[in-house]
Design brief:
- Belongs to the Tom20 family.
- This is Mitochondrial import receptor subunit TOM20.
- One of its GO terms (molecular function) is mitochondrion targeting sequence binding.
- The protein is built from six helices and no strands.
- α3 packs antiparallel against α4 and α4 packs across α6.
- The longest helix has 31 residues.
- The model has no long low-confidence stretch (mean pLDDT 83).
Length: 160
Amino acid sequence: MSSTSKLVVAAGVGMAGLLFICYCIYFDRKRRSHPDFKEKLRKKRALERKKWEDAKKITFPFPPTMESVNRFFMKQIASSDELYNYGDVDGAARCLASALVASGQSPECLNFLRGNMPPDLFVALKKVFPDMKIEFQQAMAEMSKKVEKGEFVLTDEQYD
């Protein structure tokens, strides 16, 4: 290939790239100047924030059967892994602590986990574990009161 044809090809590729960038800038400006853009963006972010906060809420299985606790345990471990991968160490620690508490694991089990998890997650887990144990006991007491009153309570089949 001669030097002039290389120059022509390079110029063509450069022009195509420049046109593409101009196209992107034009439509981005048009999108941002739309009257509903900011409102739609606020709604979208609020919906994502609500979805994220709902994902962090922990609903313990009741009644705590072996099968429901195992499903809950696996779900919380998966959530913990996902949250940790997104950089939410505290959320990951809460999910992991809830899984350990619901499965009846003792605090001594935490020392076993020390070598199997990142140090920052382990430190956060040690901080959250006692509070999660209290939260679990309160949730079980609240559900027991609802059962005594005859109010509707989620069963383990509804966790699927």
